[in-house]
């Protein structure tokens, strides 16, 4: 028995649980469980109770599931694939529980909406035609640093290719002992490079999307809404650059470990520290900014104007499907950041690319 899997579980999954439990409190004041409401309705007593109920049920179920997983890891066989299967099964169960809770509360919210205080429809619409010209994100030129690191890793590996053993370690057990090898080949040696390229391209796309995604301006206070939006996009752009940089470094460490340029006792702590930094950064940014800039520059006045949103274009309040919308990226209603418009043909090509990459990596 080793304590390392438990430590990894705590660092990786506890922040995720905290985020899921807290989500109703991080959401915009115009969205409640995927349904459009007014700020007055959002702060009404029925919705306050719904948020408390959601947090209580979600925290209870996720805590029970997490403790069961920890117990299974402690008493599992660390020299087999059992622990890996435990973590995979736990991850899937966590996603399923979260989906069931969110969908059930979405329908509960829709049935409660007619009984809430009446929200008037807005008589005006605010549009900021120059928001793309604002300082709302870092330039993609910053990703040239990632390219440089990847090129240096490739050159280093090619120069030291003969030093790589015929059997390359590709998996470690919970005691950090090698329990799976792969035959030396260009495909296995440069798999970390493929991941670096994929991560760089993915985050370039994400950073580009931050500039391109359509803006939602609240008509009751458009100036504050514009400032919130610009700050939100800029801070998440910084995160995209930083997180992708750390992940590119992580895969460089993996490659250098193959050719014994890094000691295993030095490489493992670096990898764990990088993962912890990315998770903590994302968690801190989420609680600071909220969902869709909801926690930035909050107004003391609550409007009873119900914003115009396309509720009928959102499936279960979380999946956006609108073939008539030319935008590929939209702000999420559940969760933090941006998501895909599944009515756009390119969204399916995106997921096809993810599936192909997973098959290749496997």
Automatic annotation (TrEMBL):
Transmembrane spans: 6-26, 57-76, 82-105, 142-161, 181-205, 236-254, 266-289, 338-361
Residue ranges of every copy of the DUF5808 domain listed in the record: 323-348
Domain DUF1648, residue spans: 148-195
UniProt keyword terms in alphabetical order: Membrane, Transmembrane, Transmembrane helix
Tree of life domain: Bacteria
A matching Pfam family: DUF5808
Gene source species: Paenibacillus odorifer
Protein name: DUF1648 domain-containing protein
PANTHER family per the UniProt record, alphabetical: IMMUNITY PROTEIN SDPI (PTHR37810), MEMBRANE PROTEIN (PTHR37810:SF9)
InterPro entries (alphabetical): DUF1648 (IPR012867), DUF5808 (IPR043831)
């Amino acid at each position: 028995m080793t304590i390392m899997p438990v430590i990894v579980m705590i660092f990786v999954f506890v922040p995720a649980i905290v985020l899921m439990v807290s989500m109703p409190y991080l959401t915009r004041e115009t969205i409640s469980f995927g349904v459009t409401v007014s700020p007055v309705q959002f702060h009404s007593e029925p919705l306050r109770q719904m948020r408390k109920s959601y947090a209580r049920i979600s925290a209870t179920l996720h805590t029970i599931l997490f403790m069961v997983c920890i117990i299974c890891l402690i008493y599992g066989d660390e020299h087999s694939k059992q622990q890996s299967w435990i973590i995979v099964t736990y991850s899937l169960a966590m996603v399923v529980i979260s989906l069931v809770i969110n969908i059930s509360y979405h329908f509960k919210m829709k049935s409660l909406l007619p009984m809430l205080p009446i929200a008037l429809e807005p008589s005006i619409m605010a549009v900021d035609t120059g928001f793309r010209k604002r300082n709302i994100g870092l330039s993609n030129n910053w990703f040239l640093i990632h390219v440089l690191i990847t090129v240096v890793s490739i050159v280093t590996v090619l120069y030291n290719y003969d030093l790589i053993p015929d059997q390359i370690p590709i998996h470690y057990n919970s005691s950090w002992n090698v329990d799976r090898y792969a035959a030396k080949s260009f495909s296995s040696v440069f798999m970390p490079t493929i991941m670096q390229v994929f991560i760089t391209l993915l985050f370039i796309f994400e950073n580009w999307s931050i500039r391109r995604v359509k803006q939602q301006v609240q008509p009751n206070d458009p100036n504050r809404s514009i400032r919130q939006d610009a700050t939100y996009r800029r801070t998440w752009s910084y995160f995209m650059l930083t997180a992708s940089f750390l992940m590119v470094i992580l895969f460089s460490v993996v490659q250098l470990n193959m050719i014994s340029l890094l000691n295993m006792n030095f490489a493992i702590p670096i990898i764990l520290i990088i993962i912890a930094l990315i998770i903590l950064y994302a968690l801190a940014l989420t609680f600071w900014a909220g969902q869709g800039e909801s926690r930035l520059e909050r107004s003391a006045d609550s409007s009873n104007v119900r914003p115009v949103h396309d509720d009928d274009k959102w499936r279960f309040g979380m999946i956006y499907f609108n073939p008539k919308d030319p935008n590929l990226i939209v702000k999420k209603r559940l969760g933090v950041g941006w998501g895909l418009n599944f009515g756009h043909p390119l969204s399916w090509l995106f997921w096809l690319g993810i599936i192909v990459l997973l098959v290749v990596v496997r």
